[in-house]
Amino acid sequence: MGTGYLSNQIANGTGRDLLMQAINTNGTSIGQLASTLNCDINSVKGAINQLQAAISSVGAQTGMSAADVKNSITMGNM
Predict the structure, then answer these.
(1) Contacts of 33 (CB under 8 A, 6+ apart)
(2) Is 0.90 surpassed by the pTM of this model?
(3) What is the pLDDT along the chain (78 residues), one digit of tens a residue?
């Protein structure tokens, strides 16, 4: 599985919703996302932590809050 597989899994509305819920630390969603991706929950949690750090970095670079960056990503504006 490569990044193309992951992109396909989160490209649809359901996958994107699960990812955003997981980023917002919804434990059930983390489990569902791990199941969808057929991987370990700890791997998903590690990836979420990396995403949160990247979102914070983008926010710092653009002068936006992390919440604004998340909203922009959700709306497809980034």
Answers:
(1) 18, 19, 22, 44
(2) no
(3) 445 555 565 566 666 776 777 666 667 778 888 888 899 988 988 888 888 888 888 888 988 887 888 788 778 765
